Write the C-alpha cells for this entry.
Amino acid sequence: MKNYFVITAGRTGSAWLADFLSENLKIEAIHEPLEIDDFGTRMPDIRTMRTFNNFGNNDFIKDFWQRKFKTIPDEGIYAETNHTLCKCGLVENVIANDRADFTTLIILKRNIVKQCVSYLVRHDFGNITIPWQWYLHPSYSRKIINAQAFSQFGALGMPLWYCYEMAARQEYYRQKYADKIEMIEVSLDQAVHEEGAKSFLKGLGIAGDCIMPPQKNANKAKPSEEVMKQVSHIVDQINFDEAKVVREAIKGGFSFEP
C-alpha cells in the first residue's frame, strides 16, 4: 500500500503532475474529485477550508479527514494531487491517523513569477469565493505571512501574498514533520523536462523509462511582456528567507493545531 499527496499552491502544475504519476506509476491518479457528492467527503468545501485556516485542526476538520480516508483504497497505489488538501489539515491528519508509514508528500514548487502572473491573467483573486475554495485569504487568522506588507502592490498584492504564504507553509511542514513522514521536493520548471522528470522519478524510487504527458490546464490568455517584467521586478526586490521566517513562527508558537 502506498499513498502520494502534494503540498503545493494552485497553478503550480498539480493537474500535470496527476497525469505524470498516472503514466509512470501505471495507475489512475486523481487531480481533484469534483462530483457533487465529493464535496465534504473526498474534497474540502468552503466551510472546511475556512474552518481550518481560522480555527486549525479542530473536530470538524478531523471528521472530514475520517470521511476522506474511508474513500481511499486499503491496497495498491493511490495518488492525489489536489492542492486544497494541504490547506485544510492533510499533513496533520495523515500523521494522526497512522498513515505516515505508507505516505509520501510531494512538495511541488513553481517559479514564483510565473505562478503569480498565472493568477493575474485569470483574475483568480477578483472574487472572494475563489480564494475561499481554492487558494487562501489574507483575512484568515492562521497564516504565517502578514499580508499587510503586500498591500502596497495593489491588485498584485493578494496573489503575491498567496505565493509567499504557500512557500512558507511548505517550509513549515518540512521543518515540523520531515522526521515523521517522507517528503520529496520537485520543481515544475524542471520536472516538465525529461532530465528533471527522471530525477524526480528516481527520488520516488521508480526505475525505468520516463513518460512525459503534455502540458495541462495552461492559461489560454498569455500575459504581456510588461506584466511579466513588472512582477519580476517586484519579486527581485523581496528579500524572503522562508526557513528563517518559519523557524521564528514555530518558535513563537505558530501551529495549525487548535
